[in-house]
Design brief:
By secondary structure, the protein is α/β, with parallel strands linked by helices. It contains ten helices and eleven strands. The protein has a six-stranded mixed sheet, with helices on both faces. A five-stranded parallel sheet has the order 2-1-3-4-5, sandwiched between helices. The radius of gyration is 23 Å and the shape is elongated.
Length: about 325
C-alpha cells in the first residue's frame, strides 16, 4: 500500500539549513503545516542532522557562517547514508556561475530569495514525489514477498554500506542473527501455511522491536532473520534483542512440539567496536556463531560473547 508520504504529501521530513533566523522563520511559515521540520543553523549541524533526522529533502542556504552550502552538499553526496536526499538550494546570488556551482555540487534545484511560497511548495512537492516514487520502485526489488521485510539482497548491500560508514566515523555497529526455534517441527505438525503465517508474525514482531530510523530488519533466509543496528553498542543491541523476544511473547503462536508450547526464537549478537581490522563478513560469522551458541544452550536465548541470558528455564528436549 502506498501512503501519502510516499508521494511527497503530508508527513515528509524536511531539514531547513540557514544561519539567519529571519530566513528560517520565513521558510517555516510556508512549509510547517505540510511537512515535519528540523532546523540547522550551521553546516556541521546540517551534516549531523542529515544522518540523525534522516530527512526526505533538504532546503539549504548557499551562504553559511562556518562552511558554504556548496561544501555541505558535496559532503552529503559523498556519504552513502545521505547521498540520495534531494538538496534544494536557497540563494539570493543570481549568476550563471552560482547556478552551475549548485548543480555541480549535486543539488536538484535552487530557489531564489526572497522565496515565493507557491514556488517553494510546488518544487518541494515535485522533488519529494520523485524521491518517494523512486524509493518505492527500488523497494520492490528489496522486499521479501512473504514477510514484507527487506530481503537478503538488501541486507548484504546495507551491511556493507553501514560497515563502511562505521569505519569512517569510528563508531560501533551491531548485528542480531535470529532463528525460529524448532521451526521444522512446527511445519511438520501445523502445516506449511501455518508456517508462513508464523514467519509473518515473527517479521511483524521484529519490525515492532526496532525503533530507530536507521535500524534494519531483514529476512535472511528460511526461518532466519537479521537486524542491522548502526551506531549501536552491545548494551543497545541487547535491549533490541530483549524487545524482540518480548514482542513475540506478547502475541504467542501455539507450537505443540516446542517445550514452551509456543513459538520462540534464539538470537546471536555481535558488536564491532571501532577501530576494527575485521571485515563485515567476519562480523556476520561471529553473530552466526553466537546464534549457534544460543541453540546449543537450549534455544529461546540470547547469546553474545559466549554470555547466555535467559529469563526462563530450558526444558529438556532433544534437538531437531
Amino acid at each position: 500500500m502506498i501512503h501519502n508520504k510516499e508521494w511527497g504529501g503530508q508527513g515528509a521530513k524536511v531539514l531547513v539549513v540557514d544561519d539567519e533566523a529571519i530566513n528560517v522563520e520565513v521558510v517555516k511559515s510556508i512549509v510547517q503545516d505540510t511537512y515535519a521540520l528540523s532546523i540547522a543553523s550551521s553546516g556541521e549541524d546540517a551534516l549531523d542532522q542529515a544522518q540523525r533526522f534522516a530527512p526526505d529533502a533538504i532546503l539549504l542556504d548557499v551562504v553559511l557562517g562556518d562552511m558554504t552550502g556548496i561544501d555541505v552538499c558535496r559532503t552529503l553526496k559523498r556519504n552513502p547514508l545521505t547521498q540520495s536526499i534531494p538538496v534544494l538550494f536557497l540563494t539570493s546570488l543570481e549568476s550563471h556561475t552560482n547556478e552551475q556551482m549548485c548543480w555541480d555540487a549535486g543539488g536538484v534545484d535552487f530557489i531564489l530569495k526572497p522565496v515565493n511560497p507557491d514556488t517553494l511548495l510546488n518544487r518541494l512537492r515535485v522533488h519529494l514525489t520523485l524521491r518517494f516514487q523512486s524509493q518505492y520502485l527500488q523497494k520492490l526489488a528489496y522486499i521479501d514477498g512473504l514477510t514484507g521485510l527487506y530481503n537478503r539482497r538488501y541486507f548484504d548491500e546495507q551491511m556493507q554500506r553501514h560497515w563502511e560508514q562505521a569505519q569512517r566515523n569510528m563508531s560501533d555497529i551491531s548485528v542480531l542473527m535470529i532463528d525460529v526455534d524448532y521451526f521444522k517441527r512446527f511445519n511438520d505438525s501445523m502445516g506449511h501455511l501455518a508456517g508462513d503465517d508464523c514467519l509473518k508474525s515473527i517479521a511483524h514482531s521484529l519490525d515492532e522491536a526496532i525503533q530507530r530510523p536507521l535500524d534494519i530488519a531483514c529476512r535472511y533466509g528460511g526461518e532466519e532473520f537479521a537486524i542491522i543496528l548502526p551506531d549501536s553498542d552491545l548494551t543497545g543491541a541487547s535491549e533490541v534483542a530483549r524487545r524482540v523476544q518480548d514482542c513475540i511473547e506478547r502475541e504467542p503462536i501455539v507450537h505443540p512440539k516446542s517445550p514452551w508450547q509456543r513459538v520462540t526464537v534464539s538470537i546471536g549478537i555481535t558488536t564491532s567496536t571501532m577501530p576494527s581490522q575485521a571485515t563485515y563478513q567476519q562480523l556476520l560469522q561471529v553473530a552466526d556463531q553466537h546464534l549457534y551458541c544460543a541453540k546449543e544452550q537450549g534455544r529461546n536465548k540470547v547469546c553474545h560473547f559466549d554470555k547466555i541470558t535467559t529469563s526462563t528455564p530450558t526444558p529438556s528436549l532433544p534437538k531437531d
